[in-house]
Amino acid sequence: MQNSGEDLGQSVVKAFMNFKRAELQNFKVPGLKRSETRFLFMLHHGLQHKQDKLGMKVADVTAILKVSKPSVTQQINALEEKKLIIRSQDPVDKRAAYIRLTKEGESVVEEIISTFHKNFEDMTSFLGKEEMERLISLLDKLTEYLNTKAENEEV
Q1: Which domain holds residue 125?
Q2: Which top-rank group of organisms is this from (predicted)?
Q3: Is residue 56 within 8 Å of residue 100, measured between CB atoms?
Q4: Is residue 115 assigned to a domain?
């Protein structure tokens, strides 16, 4: 166990960095960047909650991902080039653009979800159900703390 707050803080940062590095190695989808995987997963999730046949508004994607419009446009262009998404224009409001998954995109998202489930099943087998539930609880608690702290500092 660490003996000072600074050492403990450094240990937490090191643990997060090591986890992130290991996560990147184990949650890869061949042919996709991590950002593209995240984008497709978010789009899939967003489309499940939308009833619009055109898909999801690009402006909504920008808000959900909390990234700039140029970054979203870059992601859309790359995924469109890979034929994983389709972009369309709103027939009423020509300024609004929509995106949706292609059949191939849906297939890739199924692969992403399957890979995630397999990895989490493996982690649960490794840690055990009780430790996995404790890890989830601690991460939820830490996330709540950090979000509350960020909200209070924005004011």
Answers
A1: 31-154
A2: Bacteria
A3: yes
A4: yes
